[in-house]
Amino acid sequence: MREQLTIGIVGSGYVGLVTAVCFAELGHRVICVDSDESKIALLRQGIPPIHEEYLPQLLQRHANHAVEFTTDLKGATRQAHALFIAVGTPQSQTGHADMSYVDAVASEVARAITDYKLIVEKSTVPVYTNEWISRIMMRNGVPHELFDVASNPEFLREGTAVMDFLHPDRIVIGVDSGRAAEILQAIYEPLISGSYYKKADAVPGPRMTSEPAPLLETSTKAAEIIKHASNAFLAMKISFINTVSNICEAVGADIEQVAKGIGSDGRIGHKFLKAGIGYGGSCFPKDVAAFRYVAEHLGVDFGLLSEVEKVNAEQKKRFFQKVRSALWTFRGKKLGVLGLAFKGGTDDIRESPAIDLIRMFLHEGCVVSVYDPAAAEKARQVLPASKELSYAKDSYEAAQDADALLVLTDWAEFAELDLDRLSRILRYPVVIDGRNLFDPAVMRKYGFTYLGVGRAAGMHEKDPVFAKLP
Ligand code: UGA
Predict the structure, then answer these.
(1) What whole-number distance in Å separates Cα of residue 458 and Cα of residue 461?
(2) How far is the CA of 50 from the centre of ligand 1 (A)?
(3) Residue positions annotated with a catalytic role
């Protein structure tokens, strides 16, 4: 039997941390490295720095046992058979991914190598990164037989990252040597063979022993492109449905019905056809821009991606205009806002359309009372401290005496609100829903003037004047 694998993970962000605890869950020994000492101290105590389902349980199970947290990259390099680079690749001013963290890690790893290592790119990186890493190794005097570089992109969604990792649609390994393929196959063996799903305490999800995770072996370049192209395609689906929602709005059709009709075609599928206020998060905006940049750099015209970005920016502005047309003027109006995170189920506010919109409303002189089940702390760090902006303890407090209630994040709990109570505490029963969480007919029944995205305006009969306005 093969000796137990020791895996080094460099970076303890969403991807690195989830990968670390999940590899431990698969039975490997893991050393997770980060240069941020305070974060490492928290992790050693088993405290998750992010809001992620199953992460607290897996940290509890594996921290300081199967997973060791450290700031010592050289030490981790010496011990690990495989090193996964999962550091950030932030967006630079021109749109391309800033690879300086990957470069720094690769250089430090190179200086610590004394025996064979598999270096695996886990961060989202542009095509050719594997070749750059190889070049860094060789420039630092590492002979070619002492390393391989592979690409193993992740397809985790924030909020469900642990489940996505352990129950993936596919595992992609981009490898250019048999040795690299063999190590990555051994790392993922419990998911590929299905043995993981037999465990009594396995994290639940759609995969099972009879239907284990499929492994897709490609070249490293193909794997790099698969990651960028997957995110760009999903972002394109969202911009597509958002544009169709604008057509629905113009003619009084319901985008939810249209999306159902389109998605029922197996070739299109239902997922990622939810119209809203545009995509956000740390991945889609950055990755669409980076992929567009890669194409440009290679002389390929990928104007489609510029359109995807343009539609996404417009969708936010369109929602802003919708609120304006419902309220007529902004100055001094009180807005109840539900949601800060870029999507439900996470405390992440990076590139969140909700944050941008709140800034725009504050700029227009509105008074905003906002509630989010998880993201308030992070929002406080980026939104201006102002007496015009308060953080409510729940949705009802946010809605109290508001001129309108806006839904900006698709948290499941918002869809469960007591509509009778809501209609009584709002100053005017106006709900403008950027995530289509409610049924327009039900909202009308409760006396709301309800505006969704891509739906005929739902005016209550008590609001006849408003209904006639342009
Ligand atoms: C995304 C991808 O879905 C993951 O597969 C990928 O691994 C990850 O990026 C990454 O590259 O790390 P994530 O950013 O967590 O995951 O969020 P998504 O669930 O994809 O949502 C992204 C944005 O699109 C959110 O703002 C969401 O509200 C919006 N969205 C999503 C829509 O507006 N409509 C939809 O139908 C789906």
Answers:
(1) 9
(2) 17
(3) 283
Average pLDDT over residues 239-267: 97
Residue 332 lies in a domain: yes
| Residue 461 reports pLDDT greater than 80 | no
Any ligand 1 atom below 6 A from CB of 280:
yes
pLDDT exceeds cutoff 90 at 97: no
Mean pLDDT score across all residues of the chain:
94
Give the neighbor-by-neighbor strand order of the sheet with 404-407: 389-391, 367-371, 334-338, 404-407, 430-433, 449-451
Range of the domain at 242: 219-470
Q: What is the mean pLDDT of residues 190-215?
A: 97
- 157 Cα–ligand 1 center, Å: 6
Domain count, the chain: 2
CB-count burial class (<10 Å; 0-12, 13-18, 19+) for 445 = exposed
Q: Return the pLDDT at 463.
A: 56
**CB-based contacts of 219: which residues, under 8 Å, 6+ apart?**
174, 175, 176
Which residue's C-alpha comes closest to atom 2 of ligand 1?
Answer: 157
- Pocket test of ligand 1: the residue of 50, 87, 156 to mutate, having most ligand atoms within 8 Å of its CB, is 156
Q: Please, are residues 426 and 447 in contact by the beta-carbon 8 Å criterion? A: no
DSSP-based three-state secondary structure for 54 = coil
Of all protein residues, the one whose alpha carbon is nearest to atom 17 of ligand 1 is 157
Q: Answer yes or no: do 212 and 231 share one domain.
A: no
274 touches ligand 1 (CB under 6 Å): yes
Task: Identify whether 1 is part of a domain.
Answer: no
Do 185 and 317 lie in a common domain? no
**pLDDT confidence of residue 1:** 43
Residue 285 has pLDDT above 70, yes or no: yes
**99: pLDDT confidence band, cut at 50, 70 and 90?**
confident
Report the nearest atom of ligand 1 relative to the CA of 278.
33
For residue 174, being part of any structural domain is answered with yes
pLDDT > 70 fraction of the chain, expressed in percent and rounded: 96
